[in-house]
Amino acid sequence: MFGKILNTFGTKIVVAFINLMIAVIISQVLGDSGKGVQSLILTNISFILIFSEIVCGASLVFLTSRHPFSKLWLPSVLWALIIAVLMGGVMLLFNMGLDATLALHTAVLSFISSFASINFRFLIGKEEVKKANYNTLLQPLVLVATLAIYYLALGRRDIYGYIIGLYLAYFSSSVLGVCQLRREYAALTLSPLREYRETLKALFKYGFLNQTGHFVQFFNLRLSYYLLNAFVDAGNVGVYSNAVSLAESLWIIPNSIALVQYARISNSTDKAYNQRLTLDLAKLCFAVALPAVVVLALLPASFYQLVFGPEFGSVASLIRMLAPGVLLYSLFLILGHYYSGSGRYFMNTVAALCGLAVTLVCGFTLVPRHAAQGAAATAAIAYSMNAVFLMVCFLKESHFRMRDFWLTPSEIKHYITEIKNHYLK
């Protein structure tokens, strides 16, 4: 399992670096306003995926070992298509920061992304973590290559380079996923509709509970983008989105760990083992994330102006405001996957609601007055609220104590040995 975590971590490090290159290219070529539009496109795709993943999301991981591939695949694809069509209409009616043409592209891209995600979830459910990581890596590689050709080689200066890149990235990932699951696709059969009843019931049961939490959490993480666009301007969205992207890149560590943790707990019924595993992984996550947060927070404004352009100097102060909340949220990700892996998605929903209460009160108060600084303060408080709630619940349930979250010297030595064995074998 530790080898899978290291493989996932290595993949996500590469993905994060490529995503940074993408942010740099768009920021330098299109400026803060263009970066703001790009952020709104990606945010709207993420918003649509929340509804799509009621069926196509984490519930697929949980149910892969419990239901046949054929019974899960068809409902997932059809649901993704229905949601893309419906949400495309919603975006056309309510704008959501994009014009009609970009809204239509966003809806189509959300469906292709959902299809790629379906394959990814099946791989994780089968604990084929390395294959899933290769799939994850392909998307940003294709996207950054497209941007380099469109913006740097051809010299174009519009948002459609990014749109084309997303089409190619999501489509490539979908094709690779089909190839990785070729045995399952080769054996794919269609059954009478009545035989999907049990599968649909399970998908909606677990998916609805899980995605309710994700829906609430989406607004915790991204409501400020819409508030900044409404009360200030797209340029503030662009600057803030770069700060958020860099700060959230620290979640590479907990997300790498949580991906493997979730697959393992989903296939385990030993509660004591799952709790001990979660504690050990949370300790490891916090110990690694802490120095990374400190380093990122110490970078000066001139560094961000050099990387992104002269409009982005305030990224430094925004990251410092976000840093404490981002660090605590890394623990939330590990603890949240403990509850998700055991099918108790409602715990994450309640935690997310606590954060959303903070986001609504602080967001509508601070963002109109303090722009991006207010958005950063709101996010940091909401992140912290999420983590504190789940930590209290986990400690109460497991009977661990706060001091159990600190790594011991023997544990540090063990992890160093594991890393050496993995990379130097």
Question: What does this molecule look like?
Answer:
The structure is a single chain. With 425 residues, the protein is mainly alpha-helical. The chain has one domain (2-424). It is built from 15 helices and no strands. Helix 3 runs antiparallel to helix 4 and helix 9 (234-248) runs parallel beside helix 14 (345-398). The longest helix is centred in the N-terminal third of the chain and has 55 residues, at 2-56. The protein is globular and about 55 Å long. The two termini are 16 Å apart.
What's the multimeric state?
single chain
| Largest sheet data | none
What sequence of helices (H) and strands (E) makes up the elements?
A: HHHHHHHHHHHHHHH
Helix coverage percent of residues?
over 70%
Specify the number of helices. Answer: 15
Low-confidence stretches: none
Terminal CA distance: 16 Å
Structural class: mainly alpha
Computed over alpha carbons, the radius of gyration is 21 Å
Integer average pLDDT: 84
Number of domains: 1
Number of extended strands: 0
Strand content: under 5%
SSE order and pairing:
Blueprint: H1 2-56, H2 58-64, H3 69-94, H4 100-125, H5 129-153, H6 160-180, H7 182-186, H8 197-231, H9 234-248, H10 252-266, H11 271-298, H12 301-308, H13 315-341, H14 345-398, H15 409-424
Helix pairs in contact: 1-3, 1-4, 1-5, 1-8, 1-9, 1-10, 2-4, 2-8, 3-4, 4-5, 4-6, 5-6, 8-9, 8-14, 9-13, 9-14, 10-11, 10-13, 11-13, 13-14
